[in-house]
Amino acid sequence: MMKVSMVCTNDIAGGAARASFRLYKGLKAMDVPVSITARRQQIPDDTIHQVQNVFAEQFVARAGLAAIQDVFIDQGRTAMSNTLFTLSYPGVDLTQFASVLNADVVNLHWVSRFLSVTSLRKLAQLNKPIVWTLHDCWAFTGGCHYPAGCDRYQTDCHACPQLREDPLGLTTRVLQDKADLWADLPLTIVTPSRWLADCVRKSTPLRHHRVEVIPYGLETDVFHPTPKPEAKRKMGLAEGAIAILIGANDSNEIRKGFWALFAALQRCEANAQFRAMAKAGKVQLICFGPPPSDELQTLAVPVQAFGMIENDETLSCLYSAADLLVLPSQEDNLPNVMLEAMSCATPIVAFDTGGIPDAVVDGETGLLVPPGDLDALAAAILKLVFDAEQRQHLSQNGRQRTLENYLLVRQAKDYMSLFEELLATHPAVSTTAPTEDLGSVELDVSLGKNFGAIYPQLSYEALVRDNLDYRMKLRQSQEQVEELEAELGRSQGRITAMETSKFWKIRTNWMVLRKRLGLGGDA
What we know:
2 domains
């Protein structure tokens, strides 16, 4: 039977990895021989293989690249976005890795900080069909994972607005390397949403490759509706209160739009009926993920935070306990949170952006408002808070749409059909490896000619700045130590002065006398 090798930066951690792992489970349920090769592994499984050690063992080889990432990218972002922005070098060479060599089809997923422009090209030279499932935009940009409204990936990524400085054209050169080195590769691109597929078709590096849309699948038997009164009791929520749910892996990420949510809720509080319900505890905000913004605590609406929820059954119960989910994302692919909530029959209020309208049909499975329209977002929230009949209608339709379009088995079958089609037209060359040899994995620090032309100067500047920054921090640390030592010296001086004073001698003699009289040593 066809053997599939999935390649992911993480096996389970993060939204993209979570979606990938679901496909892995779906393929296994079909008895497909499938493995995962990951940089970082959390799930103990004989078919999941980790290669994290190569990054640590070959640190010196990537020192200049790491400095460029730190100095020119991580420390050089503008206020436009704080979503990931990743240099496309270095990568891991998987061409001698057994689980990849033994596979008939290689299915790449989120591989940023794992595969590079050049190591992906080497992987393609194994002459196996490669299906690359994209979970964000990194594959076709100069480094950003979401372009924040910028469309320069369609041309040359010149003067990236997400970086404060780019003196040598880093983003332009990375984009050109992707276009040059991937143009002739046997890549088939899969996107979970129509929006992302449209972005790919317009992009400079990938516009000439085949693109297919296969939505995510999820475990509808795990994420299923629980009667609201029962779910509210289990989660410790007031049964008579309308629960507005929000949640994300990182609520501080600008594109997730929690600032917009806060502004919309402020507008909701201007409504007398909503304000009265909040004061009476008849409406509340419930959150999962990292702690909510301090701003939310200033609202009149009671806030209950559940923190990180690792258990799917508990998360499913929380979705069911909610009366609506507000998804204020400004830019997104096909959010897991959205699909999970819909599967639990929870209606969605969201901006009409990215892949969200693939699942949320306005007036049928949720309410969509124009991107950035805070008044419209507030009005949609109020509409569902006040209209129980509308909530019920959207809830039922949302669950039904999930069962029709986002079943895990359907996703797995669609992928298998694509794999079989590709193998029929592009048979894999037989390459086998008898054992899993982690020692055969090497860090690939080779560079494309465009980025390679600026690497010596850019890495030198980054290392110099990094060294200066380190020395400055070291100097500050030394100054702090010296100040602490000086303060300690001053304190010791005060103690010595006190102990040699006439008062201290009298106090000492008094303590001795009390002990002799059997009165104890305490004054």
